[in-house]
Amino acid sequence: MSSLIGVVGAGRMGRGIALSYSFAGVPVVLVDLKQRSDQQRQETINQIREELANDLNFLATVGLVEKSKIDEIVSLTSFSHRESGENPLEHCDIVYEGVPEVMEAKTDAFSYVSKMASKTAIVASTTSTFLVTDLAKLISEPKRFLNAHWLNPAHLMPLVEMSKGDQTSQEAIDILQASLESIGKVTVLCSASPGYIVPRIQAIAMNEAARLVEEGVASAEDIDKAVNVGFGLRFAVLGILEFIDWGGGDILHYASKSLCETVGERYTAPEIIGKNMRENKNGIRDGEGFFNYENIDPTAYRQKRMTDFVKLLKHRELLPKYNQSITDQ
After folding, report:
1. Predicted TM-score (pTM) of this structure
2. Which one of 190, 233, 250, 328 is at 20 to 30 Å from 177 when CA atoms are compared?
3. Domain with CATH 3.40.50.720 in the chain
């Protein structure tokens, strides 16, 4: 676990990252780059501390932390700014950039980080807009730079999408990944591609949901209900690609073809689906699809997934109704 974390940018994402680390007992320095008067700066610090305490109070109400520990956790986040006359990043092992999604702001932030951070510190941008390969040009040591896309609310969402650049070293990836996992985060690694993983899938799903309202297919309430207790439930247990393998890639192919013909070309299946069909890699029943099932007992595998699904239904109070008065005839 890192000994000191630096976060440049004191907005919502920066505060969420600070809370994530401080909650795990790791000290954080939160650096505000905005120009403020002394009074405004103190008001901002007070506001952030109050916000952190409020979030922790909520976690206390659900049993995740003792109220007596809240002040101690909040105290693990210290504050600094560019006019402080100090170098708050000097001893940071990892520095996160979390300024607004404007290139001018990014350029300014990375100029500051390059000047202040040590030559061995890992630097990560939390951007959801800019490619790691573009931002790496703004940093003095591109081999120690990568993107780390946190999902909001950052202190609760477990996933962090890491994106590496052409010059990113494996050491930088390993150090950042280890740091994130040490505070309970789950990491995935992707190449420099717009939208990472979650935002691309999410954007398509959200646009299609809005389109269903626009077309009068169903009410907003019923669409969200369908997603909440249908679409979403299944993918909380099975990954999307795993779900394709579960039912069969050929099923997706034909369903996509039908929707493409009746609803629109946006439903055209990608080439990889057709390729897998031609190679008899439709999923579990063929022993291979997006994943390899040759050394997996299909019955035990399905049983495990269905057990997990039933547990989720029970937690959500969505189990099928059972009439206990039924007797054998």
Report:
1. 0.92
2. 233
3. 5-190
